Amino acid sequence: MAPNLRLNAVAFISPQNHPILIRTFAKQDEHSIKYHYIAHTSLDVIEERVSAAGKATECYLGLLYAMEDVAVYGYITPLKVKIVLALALSDSVVRDVEITMIFKALHMTYYSAISNPFLKLNPPTDAAHDHSPYLLVGSPKWKNFRMRVDEISRVVGNTPNAVSNP
Amino acid sequence: MNAYPPALLAQLAPVMFVAGLDAFPTPDSSQPTTTTSTKANDFGLLAARLREALQTERKAATWQPNKTKTCQVILVDKEVQFPPRKFVSQEDPRYSAAHSLLSPLTPTSRLHPDGLIAPIWILKHTSLVPSVFVLFLRIFEFSPSDSGSPLDAPDSNRERERELEERKRDAELASEVVLRKKTTNERGIKLTVVLMATQRMLDDPTFDARLTFIRRQSGLDSPAALFVLSPVSPSELGVFVTSLQQTLYEHALEYYTAHSKRVRRKRNRHSQAISYPIPVQGSSNIARPLRPEGWAVRYEYKMACFAEFRGDDEVALKHYQDAHSMLVVMFGSTTTLPPRTYRWAEAKALADCINVKISRHYLYSNEHALALSHHNTHMRIFSDFLRGWGMGEETFEYWSWIARQHRILAELLEQGTRSTSMLPVHKPNHNSGSGGLAAGTLEVESMRSLGINPSHALQHPGFYYYMAAKCTEMRRERFLTALELENTQESVMASPGFMNEKKVDHLTIILELYTKAYELFKKYTIVDPQNPTQERLTSWIAYRIAHTYYASAKYDMAIRFFERIAKTYRREKWGSLLHPLLSTWLACARELGDVELRVKLLIEMLGHDIVEKDGPLSYGEELVAVLKSTAPSSDEVLLVDISESQPIFDSNVVFWAPEVKVGEPAAFQISLIAPHNVPVSFLPISSLSIYFSHRDCPLVIRHQDSEAGPSSFQLMNLTNVASSPEESGDVFANLRWQKGGCFIFAGTISSELPTSLKGLSPRSRWLSSVDPPQYLPIEREASSSVNVRHRSHALAVSLTHESPAYLNEKYLFTINITNTDTRPFDVVVNVLFPIEIDGAANTIILGDECSTNFIKGVPFGVLAPGVSAVKTLYLVNTGAPGDRVIDISVQSRSTEAEADPAEPEGQDLTETLSTLVIPTVDPIKVSQTISFTRRSWK
């Protein structure tokens, strides 16, 4: 049986390609910058896949690349928010169904997080870079989003073959 | 690949020796051919062409998958000697018991007593001993001039002389062949002789007899042993070369099959009888003979190589795999192969090379997953071994080896992708749910349709070069640690490996690897023409290159890279990537002593609002220190344009109302908020300029020290900012900010012309109370811009008529316009009368104008304030009755403003529209009824 999937990091990237939230679950803090690079470079592959697929783009973009000790998967929501997943590389087949399931859970988490009406209240003046208030869901002020993402990572890591035997 | 003997990596192919071609001088094409040397040149040219044609057939390379059955041609001297097979001569009675020169059992061999396979063994088979030997020889001919004139009487003496001479020459030739045949026969090498003769000679009736003589004399009776070639055209020569290759290929295969059989026999004999003594533990210094596992590796490897020579890839793969697993067994025991010995290093290189050959085999057949899986397994097994040998992740040896493995895969892939290999695309299979593959497919296939194993997903070679570079970085890190340890402890760490490592220029290697990765990433980027910004992966690698330059103290090179990469990161606002870049960039600027750059970078970094100390000073303090201590390189004002990057202050412009009338003051507030984390109070700001779009020069606010010191909140009322600079003097304020402090400039501006005043901040709030500061959010979309419009004109328009109208009547209709404004207006009226009823023909008459549907621009003249104008409009409706709709537009234009016809927006023009519905009926309606009754007959 395939071993558990282990999430090393999750990144949410806005349609304008600005980072919303980059959450790392790996222990070493000095490597967290690595996942910023991974999230950023993934955009190249995501754009390539999206433009190659034309209008018939599926949300799930599959394995983007594998480098060092992680395999990077991508997902794009219909509103062009990109979700990037860095899985710890292990020598086993990763089933697309499982990854898609994780992505859907992350998508729903993001979706419910931005439904928070208080996000639009009193937006800080210093967040003048992006027109979308949704970037704010990743700010440390809104803990719920982070908690839910962490929860997904925990569940994925603890459940053996989380979704492979429905 | 340079890390390994090329002989162990090269793709093997049957070897063909070609001799005798250099006997003919290459014709010098620059010299005009004289008639006397034509024939010699013919053969010279032929030989040159042959050399070329034979050598282009196949080139020795690591990546050579083509299955055209051709031999690897090596041009040799006619007198070439093969290396002796054994130490003793064949005549010696000990010959059969003696071993090959290269055998570990031969005391003079490099492999004595326990070596596995030396590259020289492969070299022997690839360059010293062929499988077929082609000898080109020129058959003796008298030159045509010697033969005398055909008119001469036949001279029997002369004929006999010539015959004898020919016979003598032919016998010489045959003995030469015999000599050669002896050496080739010894080794089972096929000898083929190609006799070169002129066309004239071929036609000579004596030629056949001579040929038979030579064949018999030299024993060239077997098939494909003797060819005859005369100077022919290049295309015919090509045909000859191909047929030669094809004919001899079979013989080459036989040669290698014989070798395989011989080795297999030896292996079988060996596995049955192990007669070599097992060495005593601890006696590692004494020469120990090769153990059975070692012999097994030798035989498997040799059989694999001979199979590879034959082109039998499946068999080769099997033997290589066996050899590899046997090597793994050997490495499993430190007594068999004690670590860090010469034999151990040799065996490790052999294992690595076998791994490359296996991976390459899979790549030839586009089995990417298998190739990568084998490569990874090899790396995993041996990194476990390395840990066991005390060369784990904490040593440079470990990383050096890992880097080498990544690099060789990258190099193999790079060579492969240049020719035949295709890289797979890892896109998810969206049709996996269709169930079409459900029954009858292999389990592997169905697993593949469900997903892929990321560690078996082959990517372009750039990734592996990147990995190699990354591992070399680790290697350098570990090496530096070891060096430090050596310096502090003065311990006896001076192992030969460490001494060697000291000579390695790690940074150059890292740079080379990153550069290769960069080029490949660039090559494999599919640029979308609509969105040519895909340079994130390359930026990432460029960043690593810049870092390497920084580490190797090439600061100017590093700066060049940083400049380009920073643009990408700034544009995409990835602060987390920009910060480390800026701090390394700054370090470069410090090293170079570039004051201007340092100031620029420090200002940019202040804007990022990060409290990250880099050295003893914070960025702000460093900036002040730089400004105080150093002199700029020129007297010019240093202008730091940070429009691309994040500004230090968050500035925000907000207008209270979205729209004002001309001349009406528009209230605005400009707020400047200092960073929250980085102190900026010590920045010696001397003045602040606010630029307005309606003024040519900015409003300058100068710094004036105040006793209060930097404040957290200031409000400055600028009142009405005049449109001309002369009217306003300089303004003074305390331009020092606390952390997160806010300075608000409030005021009004007005415009005499309709325009749009714009700020640039998207979200804004309006300061509504000073103590405590309170804000009202301004929710409208363009809160930082205001539109200035003309006031609308006050005109009273009344339309009098008495409905309904009758058909064919001249219906009367009065338009009365009164100017109730304070300004005079030029008034013009347009009447539109659309036809909406079928069969209705209508006419409108206004003054002199008459039209069926539209009267444009009827002037009412300039109306002074309070003045009225009246015009009468007639309407004639014909056809069917029904409602008629009429649109009347009254346009008034200010007589004061000079209108710019190019800009309709800017014109002071008001249009009043009114729509009338006029019911139209028949003037006379006649209705008749007739009724009759039938009288009943009685």
User: What average pLDDT do the residues of chain B reach?
Assistant: 79
Radius of gyration of chain A: 16 Å
Number of helices of chain A: 3
Q: Tally the beta strands of chain B.
A: 28
What oligomeric arrangement do these chains adopt?
Answer: heterodimer
Overall SS class of chain A: alpha+beta
Task: Please count the beta strands of chain A (DSSP E, at least 2 residues each).
Answer: 6
**Alpha-carbon Rg of chain B, integer:** 49 Å
What is the highest CATH level, the class of chain A? Alpha Beta
**Separation, N- and C-terminal Cα atoms of chain B:** 134 Å
Q: Biggest interface and which pair forms it?
A: A-B, 48 and 50 residues
CATH topology of chain A: Beta-Lactamase
- Return the average pLDDT of chain A rounded to an integer: 80
Beta-sheet strand percentage of chain A? 15-25%
Strand percentage of chain B lies at: 15-25%
Shape of chain B: elongated
**Sheet bearing the most strands of chain A, described?**
5 strands, antiparallel
User: Which second-level CATH architecture of the largest domain in chain B applies?
Assistant: 3-Layer(aba) Sandwich
| Strand order in the largest sheet of chain B | 2-1-3-4-5
Describe the structure.
Chain B: It holds the Pfam family Foie-gras_1. Chain B: It comes from Tricholomella constricta. The complex is a heterodimer of chains A (166) and B (938). By secondary structure, chain A is an alpha+beta fold. Chain A is globular, with a radius of gyration of 16 Å. A 5-stranded antiparallel sheet of chain A has the order 2-1-5-4-3, sandwiched between helices. By secondary structure, chain B is an alpha/beta fold. Chain B is built from 21 helices and 28 strands. In chain B, a hairpin with an 8-residue loop joins β10 and β11. In chain B, α2 crosses α7 and α12 packs antiparallel against α14. The chains are: A alpha+beta (166), B alpha/beta (938). Chains A and B meet through α1, β3, β6 and α2 of A and β6, α14, α17 and α19 of B. β6 of chain A pairs antiparallel with β6 of chain B.
